Amino acid sequence: MHIAKSHRRLALTSLRSVAAGAALAASFAPGALALDEVHLQTDWIPSGEHAAYYGAWSKGIFEKHGIDITITRGYGSGDTVTKLANGAFDFGVADFGAVLAARAKLGMPIKTIGMIYTHSPHSLFVLESSGIEDFQDLEGKRIGITPGNSHKLYFPKVAEKAGTDPSKIVWVNTDGATMAPLLIQGKLDAAPFYSIHYYYQNKAAEAAGEKIRVLPFEKVGFAIYAASLVTTDEMIEEKPELVERFLAATYEAFEWARENPEEACTLHTERVPEVAMDDCMGSLAAVNGFIFNAHSDETGLGNFSPERLAFTWAAVKEAQAIETDFDPAEALDTSLVPGE
Description:
This protein folds into two domains: 2-12 and 34-119 and 224-331, Periplasmic binding protein-like II (D-Maltodextrin-Binding Protein, domain 2); 122-220, Periplasmic binding protein-like II (D-Maltodextrin-Binding Protein, domain 2). The chain has 14 helices and ten strands. The chain has helices at 2-27, 51-59, 61-64, 77-85, 96-106, 150-162, 179-184, 198-207, 233-238, 240-259, 261-271, 277-291, 294-299, 306-319; strands at 36-41, 67-72, 91-95, 110-115, 122-127, 142-145, 170-173, 191-194, 212-216, 227-232. The strands form three sheets. A five-stranded mixed β-sheet has the order 2-1-3-10-4, with helices on both faces. Strand 6 (142-145), helix 6 (150-162) and strand 7 form a beta-alpha-beta unit. Helix 2 packs across helix 10 (240-259) and helix 11 crosses helix 12 (277-291). The radius of gyration is 21 Å and the shape is globular.
């Protein structure tokens, strides 16, 4: 991987020289160089967890990197990777597990080009009043679930690490829209959520006189890569300089949003007025912990460790019953991540 990265950097040096010459010529010509039009689709609805993207759009961070960005909401990582592979947009935000599965099972020509979440926000929400304090306390309890939800697929591995007997869990099929209300009403003992959604779900619980406790999968050692930046093989091969600028702009957006959360959320809520300012601030603060942490300090922002990559692939392979002999390194190329 390091050799490939060196070759990529060498090629980009030539590309940058050409780009620099073009920019110099443009400085003496009337008008500016046209921006590259780029369409980014996220993984889900534009809640506060996406404030860095939408805020940076208004702030002009993408434009600074020569990109005229358009951002649209996603409908789940599986939908994002499928549409990306079919050419519906240029870049996407998708769970790395979905990228692995799409590549290993279906041969989709897509790759992760930069990690976002160093570990998964998968967690279970319980009420503090329930007395449930850890995963072992869930034995004999009712956990809500929706069809195909990855929380249930990953739970056997979590239970193994937590010392919980998964056969003693009662899974209750539930509509996703009613999951939180049923938990708050005490009709479910636990419900699967991403921990980054704690703020506004707990706000609803407190309005009913309750408080939510979070049981993160990661706390028992289930640390797998999650949200990532993705694009097609064709984009990487034919427009590596654009990929590098997109990555540079996006990681700059993350840094800017961490340092200026109020400004990021103000700009985000202007574009997405249905998101409340306090919900945005709460979600953005939670998201930052998945992007900036000891693991990203060790690997470098956007990069990965071989050990966590191997564990992620093992978890995804087991959860989705993938029998293909596949090298997970084929599903990612982080050679264009800035600063490496």
